[in-house]
Amino acid sequence: MKNAEKIYKILKTSLILGITVVLVLIATLIAFVGGVKNAFAMPFYDLQPSEIVLRASFYTTYSASTKERKHNIALASKSLNNTLVESFGEFSFNKCVGERTEKRGYQKAKIIVGGEFVDGVGGGVCQVSTTLYNALILAGLDILECHPHSLPVSYVEPSFDAMVNSGYADLKFINNTYNPIIIKAFANGDKLLIEIWGQKMKEKYIRKSVVTKTLPALEEQVIFDTDGNYPDIFQGEYRWIRYGKEGLMSEGYVLKVLGKKTEKKKIRSDRYSPTRGLIVYGTAEKPNDKQKENENAIKNLLGIRESLLLRNKSC
């Protein structure tokens, strides 16, 4: 009978504890999203409130991107914003953001496939995952899965990118703290900022990228425009369509600073492929002199007509 009473008390206490934790997690998220600066969370081990503070932030820029790429970055950031990861919970970027499909609103923009930049649905989302990855590193959270691009990207240093793909490549981390983590994401068309909020940190983390080797650009590819894709490149002429770029090998390091003590740790080694330039020789026939004269005469007549119309309007 005594054992039964003990078991009953333990179950009752566990139930109350579980409900309390869930309620506190919900209250923390509501307070934070609602703009309350002094939000608190209850850690699991002793239910003592711990202030939720900004642990780290990281930003990248994309002002020169196409409108389609900017749209994709904004859409992925919206899915990521206000995400809560419970203590010792696991986060998956692909699960959080979802599939990048046209049905879900994503548009075509440049992506890297097979060592080349091509158009693909969801181009730009990797900049969101990369920005998050660097914020997580600065917040001292454990990365479980991360993948590099096959080519260097312009918005972050080598060995600090995080390529994602709905099918096979994900960015995952675990909240290795005793309090919930909240992810904030802001994309304004110029700058993408990601903040990591949680319990206060005693240490500071610094990223360091080191290029260990430069890989020469590949020999240029030369083609003849037999399909007529370049009608403005005439016979006997050629044009550089794309210049080759060097590749590189790099290493990523994280420095942990706690008081006067600094620890340096290599977190990854990567290889980014060089690219091949493209030269196109034209096959289009040049217009003859008589055709040029006729075209110029038509342009002149149209110009005179337009001038007369403007003069009549002004009168």
What would you say about this model in short?
29% of the residues lie in helices and 34% in strands. The chain has helices spanning 2-33, 67-80, 93-97, 125-138, 289-314, and strands spanning 40-41, 50-51, 53-61, 83-85, 90-92, 108-113, 116-121, 142-145, 172-174, 181-187, 191-198, 204-215, 218-224, 238-242, 247-258, 261-272, 276-281. The strands form six sheets. A four-stranded antiparallel sheet has the order 3-11-10-4. Strands 5-9-8 form a three-stranded antiparallel sheet. The chain has a three-stranded antiparallel sheet with strand order 12-15-16, with helices on one face.
Counting DSSP H or I runs of 4 or more residues, the number of helices is 5
Mean of residue pLDDT values: 84
The helix content is 25-40%
Low-pLDDT windows of residues: 6-24, 43-47
Number of strands: 17
**Major β-sheet strand ordering:** 3-11-10-4
How many strands, what sense, and barrel or not for the largest sheet? Answer: 4 strands, antiparallel
Distance between the termini: 109 Å
Element string (H = helix, E = strand):
HEEEHEEHEEHEEEEEEEEEEH
Radius of gyration: 29 Å
Structural class: alpha+beta
Report the β-strand fraction as a percent range.
Answer: 25-35%
What's the shape? elongated
